[in-house]
Amino acid sequence: MFIIKTNTETDSYIGGLPVVPKGTSLPKSESGIPLTFFFTVKLPKNHKFFGYTLSFFSATGEFDENLSIPEMITTELKNAIIPSGFLKQYQKLFKVFFFKSETATTLEEVSNIKLQHLDFSDQETGDVFGWAGTSPKWVLEDESPSSYEGQPISFLLQVKNEQTFEILDTAPPQKEINIFGGEKDRKKRNYFFFNENEVFFFGRPSEKPDDNVYIITQCE
């Protein structure tokens, strides 16, 4: 099923108030800078993981060329067994939570990204944000992982490439790479993550909501 942008109020949305597991505060990067809330998706009834929610945060106030996409494992990607602890350790400039929707809580720290609601559709109509079907729509070859810490890891959703996110008038500019490999203020008044690549989220239900999602990106 497609994830589409909608004007109807829903439980899935971009920007606005962050949704996190109960007892969780606004996440920060390794350097202690608060991460920006990008989106939350409450998986629908016909999804394998109905009853679960995925929320994603990423750095906009700092930039590291070596961390512009998620760190990759060093083995063959297809059917990979992800090393123990990797899914928590690789979240240096982003944070992803996958948790039971019944444990969700809303934080008061409003995102610098404008609110945009999301819905699900069997048809590829309107402004498509992503895909949450039974299997990924790969841009390149199949790179589905196999398991993590002895448990199977399955496809959750993907975000379509070339996504940019409208920001509030008061939002600071995003940091991005300069010609010397350092960082500069982005001139465009929007945010992005992972170089605007196609982004694939795989996960598993567990009691550790910040240690159960594997992210991989692809681009043509």
UniProtKB/TrEMBL annotation:
SUPFAM superfamilies the record matches: Hypothetical protein YwqG
Protein name per the record: DUF1963 domain-containing protein
Q: Which domain of life does the protein's organism represent?
A: Bacteria
What taxonomic ancestry is recorded?
Answer: Bacteria, Pseudomonadati, Pseudomonadota, Gammaproteobacteria, Pseudomonadales
Instruction: Write down the InterPro entries for this protein, in alphabetical order.
Output: YwqG-like_sf
